[in-house]
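Good morning,

Both structures are done.
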Amino acid sequence: MSEIFEFAFMYKTFISLLRYVPITLFLAITSMLLASIIGMAAAVVQVKNIPLLRQIVIVYLLLGRAIPTMVILYLVYYGLPVLLMTVADKTGTTIGYLHIPAIVFAVLGLTLHTGAYLGEIFRAAILSVDLGQMEAALSVGMNWWQGFKRIVFPQAAVFALPLLANQFLGLIKSTSIVFTITVIELLGGAKIACAEHYRYFETFVVAAIIYWAISIIFEKIFLMLERKVSLFKKGAAV
């Protein structure tokens, strides 16, 4: 058994891989925040049925969910510099696209993919709130945005939060693909350790333990948030 698991090596590998955890968390949290903004905007556009924008949003949601994350990542990483180069050539300006860090493309790719899923999650959450509540808010002098913020959004959050938690946990695992565009996060660090020591099984066991621990921590955080927002299950206004 000691030949399969060299615990001294696993401990050293664990300590070594911990330095990549902040990069993984930065990718996941930043992408989730930006994707939430995009997703909420897409949901509002659909719910309010804004002309032209709604058609653009529908196309984005379809493409964002249909195209694999890695393909989107490659399109952003290889396609965006070409687009910026074309703009620079046409306008004669210096955009400095050659100096954009790879982690920016990683965040953008993960954001675009996750935002498409969040758009549908938020739309379903908003539609789960009875239409009469918005009508009641409008009848007492609120405008649509006030009614959405004070009445609809708190109740929709109760519906959306468990799905949001699942999406975030999936996003943490999706960060593992950014190693393909030279961003070294947790899995990338594990691959480097494997190349150096040729102890693949133990290294990936350690990586799996770290991913598991991160997931448990954030699952607990989301459970706490669910309890907090459950105050609005009966439509309490803030």
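Second structure follows.
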Amino acid sequence: MTPTLYLMCGLPGAGKTTRARELEAAGKGILLNADSWVCQLYPDDAEAAARDDRKRHVEQLQWELTERLLSYGLSIILDWGVWTRAEREYLRQRARELGATVRTVYIDVSVETLQERIAQRNRDLPPGTFHVSAEELDAWAAFFEPPTHEELTEVLQG
């Protein structure tokens, strides 16, 4: 059986992790979520700059693990957000070189809805998540590159 790399694409609050957990529960692959690892490794440090730096390191480790697992024939659900086309293209190309198929799961949600969801989530942060300010979300939304039609395999309206 050919392994699959699922790329969960979208901004914070879109519902990526919820959909990723559904895929994992359905037996589609092993879920790797960088935020949850950072929260477990550094439970008492929510400072944004350190968090982002640590997340980059965790994602690097998770990608090394992903490559190994794909090469062993196991499917992976990568719950990172993958905000740029260049990042998605690199991950797709590398996964295909390892013999995997790639499915991009994009959860399309308006910034206004994201702001409401994030405000609600910030009031009672679930385990494995970080506080996200309205300013951070606005900045990330300006940086985010929605997937092109050619990239998409699943689009969910949140």
